[in-house]
Amino acid sequence: MKFIHLSDLHLGKRVNEFSMLEDQEYILRQIGGIIEAEEPRAVLIAGDVYDKSVPSAEAVKLFDAFLTQLSQRGIETLVISGNHDSAERIAFGGRLMERSGVHVSPLYEGHVEPVTLTDEWGEVRFYLLPYFKPAQVRGFFGGEIDGYTAAVGAAVDEMGVDGRVRNVLLAHHFVTGGAASGSEQLSVGGTDNVDAAVFEPFDYVALGHLHGAQRVGRESVRYAGSPLKYSLSEWRQRKSVTVVELGEKGSKLCIRTAPLTPLRDMRVLRGDFAALTGEGCVPTEDYLHIILTDEEDVPEAVGRLRLLYPNVMKLDYDNTRTRSARELGSAEDVERKSELELFEEFYENRNGEIMSAEQRDFVRTLLERIREEEK
After folding, report:
1. Are strands 18-19 and 102-104 parallel, antiparallel or unpaired?
2. How far apart are CA 9 and CA 201, in angstroms?
3. 3-state DSSP call for residue 200?
4. Per-residue model confidence as pLDDT tens digits over 133-187
5. Residue 77: which of 108, 119, 46, 36 has the closest Cα?
6. What number of other Cβ atoms are within 10 A of residue 300's Cβ?
7. Which residues of 148-172 are buried (b: 16+ CB within 10 A; e: fewer)?
8. What stretch of H or E contains 351?
């Protein structure tokens, strides 16, 4: 059974006060083309459909059009709410929409009834687990529910997953080991982390919440990532949709990505003002973070740059003065950070991107080994 895994559409989002609606409409049409070419049995949307719990009328209209197109093609669509969504609003009309092949997660009340689809190898059961906080589910389970891992684990245990058939979970949480970027909302100290071990009963776990496409632990526990760059920290990410082909029980999954090309990219331009505005410069409507290397501030720089680059989102300087300020600020708080946090900052400084989950795990293991040898 082939299905396509999407997440974190964030319809209606504004980035640095720029509306992304036109870009979202464009990318949804592109996703629609991929779906038409791939001919999947189902499309999975793993939360954060909207960017706000009360979305704009334009965002709702855009999602309605997308769901209608999928339904007209005879594709089953499975949707859960994320932390940016209102679970009640996402659930509205769910039982009516099932007749059109659109299955949305109801408000969580202690039980998840799977959506069952069949192919030549039998049943595939899809469990739609909406985002929730531990406090929202404690009353449904006996005993103490302390933390996100315990809460999600209790919800999974209650499902009574039958290991004889193929099972797929849709969930929206920060799973330990995932690499975050600047546009996700994470709790201080990692208190919202979920241990990937709780997903053991499932043949595939379609995750939402982190905006970079990645696996967490085993190959079949994956984030699809957002279809667009929603933070300047994501400028190096390559956006895609995840295509999954699930064979008979116990066989290896075929997982691949189909790349997405945005209407306007989000990227960084660096150089002095004269080089960026002089002969040979290439005007663009891409969303830009411009870093000027001039030693002196350029008068009215943003307005002058926008004559060539109308979508300048952010302007910074990198010169002797700003580097000294950064070094002073770093010296003041370095003692409060762990060795791993310091290494992560160093890596991002040198490479312009955050460490992957595999790199972070490698450095963590290396630091632990060094500490053991020092004892």
Report:
1. unpaired
2. 27
3. coil
4. 898 888 888 777 888 999 999 999 999 999 999 999 999 998 986 566 655 554 4
5. 46
6. 7
7. bbbbbbbbbeebebeeeebbbbbbb
8. helix 339-351
